Amino acid sequence: MFKKVLSVLLAGSMLCGITCAVAGAEEKVDLADGLLLYYAFDKTDAVGVIDSTANMNDGMLEEDATTEEGVLKLDAAGYVTLPEAILDECEDLTIAFWVKAKSAEQWSRYVSFGNGANTYLIISPFFDLGWEMRAGDMPERAEELNLIAGSDRNKGLSMGLTQDGIHMAQSVGRSESFDLIDQWAHICVTLNGDLATFYLNGEVIGTNDKFTNNPSNLADSALGAFDTTDNYIGYSSLGDPIPDAWYDEFRIYDRAVNAAEVAQLMKIAPGLTENVTGPEVEAPVEAKKPLVLQLDNQKASVNGEIKTMDVVPQVVEGRTLVPVRFLAESVGAEVAWDGETRTVTLATADAKAITIVIDEAKLTVDGEEKALDVPASIIDSRTMLPLRAIVEALGQYVHWDNDNRLIVITESEATYTAEEITALAELVK
Q: Would you say 121 and 113 are in contact if contact means Cβ atoms under 8 Å apart?
């Protein structure tokens, strides 16, 4: 099996963001920002595909869909059901994935979201030129497009979106034959306000700056207000053909990624790397799971693994203190102790240095002093550090749930439903 590993460059972009020069302008690369769903297809349970983000947007393997060697295989006989309402709050959007198709049947759908025939967003291995006319892209070619629309629909690639029926659909893509059969190709579609962009193997193949539709409209259309329930990889509720295709690195963002980020996504290889279309690729990384702790509980969940602390997290003057070595190792930092000055130093992979002196209500981050509400202390012969101050100094995020006395630490901002908090609390019972 091809083993997925983390490159130094990719680690920087996923964990803390990097800046890339693109066409003379600098664009920030942060592949964790706005990531709603990420399927690497190397983690499944008996019936489902595991979401590698903290959002728990797992999918369901249906019929004969399988995952092997880190790849989703549909083979025209299965599909994946995605969570309901996954796009219902998205005004901007990115959908990105690798696909290796053995054929491209008309009306087959790589992905599909919505409710039936009149409310949908689809990405397909065909381009309906009638969509292009209705979107107003080429009014001067209306006669020509009318003549060839029927015969050319099997060509091209497209994303189509409508909340008011097929005759109001808008699309982006290109009506051109692409040699994509039996080789990996990377597809990325973004929607940024009125601008829709379709990337193939990192290159723009189509834009449409007249997009008045957006995914959130699917849940509040002229045909009624309801959650989207027909959300799939490879399937259509209308009975369209299931693609004979393999997938990998499937991602949904609630924002439009930029060109530099598309280029970075291209460097994350599919699980099986033969016939990869595009530049030389590097191996992917799955999103890190949250660090979960609970007051008065020695158990903690560290990237999905249960560990036991020597000392339970403790509250001092309204602030939570945790053992220094456990905290450092859990957030990926090296720790050093100077007994003479009673100073703790944390060093991260991106060269950030944090120093804190026991019983002093301050810490230093890369030479800059910051005040602490509660100083670091030695409790039961263990050095205890103020959790929130250290985590935020490392550029990470703390979520507190008072009902469960639960602390959740993530590398990017995240929100949790009551059900998700309950599931996280179960991890450390």
A: yes
Q: Which two tokens stand for residue 408?
A: 């959740």
Q: Which two tokens stand for residue 173?
A: 């893509």
∠ CA 75-77-82, rounded to 5°: 95
Angle of CA points 96, 97, 101, to nearest 5°: 140
Q: What is the pLDDT of residues 361-419, one digit of tens each?
A: 998 988 889 898 889 888 877 888 888 888 888 888 888 899 999 999 888 887 888 88
Which token pair is 357?
Answer: 């002196």
d(C-alpha 211, C-alpha 209), whole Å: 6
DSSP 203-226: EEEEEETT----GGGGGEETTEE-
- Tell me the Cα Rg of the chain: 24
Q: Which CATH number fits domain 291-427: 3.65.10.10, 3.30.457.10, 3.90.180.10, 3.40.1350.10?
A: 3.30.457.10
Q: How far apart are the first and last CA of the chain?
A: 34
Tell me how crowded residue 41 is: count the other CB atoms within 10 A of its CB: 27
Distance of CA 255 to the CA centre of its chain: 10
Q: Tell me the whole-structure pTM to 2 decimals.
A: 0.56
Q: Which residues pair with 266 in a beta bridge?
A: none
φ, ψ of residue 148 in degrees (nearest 5): -110, -5
Please give the C-alpha separations between residue 368 and each of 76, 116, 122, 328, in angstroms, as whole numbers.
Answer: 58, 57, 50, 20
The DSSP element (H or E) to which 365 belongs, if any, is strand 362-365
Domain definitions of the chain by residue range: 8-265, 291-427
Q: Which residue has the tokens 């507190």?
A: 400
What would the DSSP string read from start to end of 151-189?
A: HHTTSSEEEEEESS-GGG-EEEEE-S----BTSEEEEEE
Least confident interval from 40-54, 261-275, 310-324: 261-275
Q: What are the phi and psi torsion angles at 222 (to 5°)?
A: -65, -15
Residue type, 29: V
